[in-house]
Amino acid sequence: MSGTFTIFDVRDVTVQPGGINTAFIGPKDLKMPFLPDAYKGTITELSWHLIAASDGTAAYEPRKAAEASVNAVRNSSCTAPMLNLPSRKGSMA
């Protein structure tokens, strides 16, 4: 994947064994030219592709996004590598 996309006012939700980490990406633009290798093969990568496909302009609903992430992890088809998500400084568990 190439290019840069912008996310506005999005709550970043990371589901991990033992809890959910969440952080608010503020009103300023967040531009990321690439996905860090640490996120490859995780739910974050799936979210990245979904956002990129919508050019970062979709209307996001944090509650629905969080529910979708939790349901994806609870799904028995999830594999261990999907749960191996990097921790975020300042997150809540």
Describe this structure in words.
The chain is of the alpha+beta class and 93 residues long. The protein has one domain (5-72). The chain has helices at residues 43-53, 62-74, 80-83, and strands at residues 5-7, 10-16, 19-25, 30-32. The strands form two sheets. A two-stranded antiparallel ribbon has the order 1-4. The longest helix has 13 residues, at 62-74. Mean pLDDT is 57; it is low at 1-9, 26-30 and 78-85.
Envelope shape: globular
Number of strands: 4
Task: Encode the helix/strand succession as letters.
Answer: EEEEHHH
**SS class:** alpha+beta
Q: What is the residue-mean pLDDT, rounded to a whole number? A: 57
Put simply, the count of helices is 3
Low-confidence runs (pLDDT<50, min 5 residues)? 1-9, 26-30, 78-85
Number of individual domains: 1
Report the helical percentage: 25-40%
- End-to-end Cα distance, whole Å, is 31 Å
What amount of the residues lies in strands? 15-25%
From the alpha carbons, calculate the radius of gyration and give it in angstroms.
Answer: 13 Å
Output the strand order for the largest sheet.
1-4
Note the main sheet: 2 strands, antiparallel
Provide key terms for this protein:
two-stranded antiparallel sheet; 30% helix; alpha+beta; 93 residues; disordered N terminus; globular; two-stranded antiparallel ribbon
Secondary structure elements and pairings:
Blueprint: E1 5-7, E2 10-16, E3 19-25, E4 30-32, H1 43-53, H2 62-74, H3 80-83
Antiparallel strand pairs: 1-4, 2-3
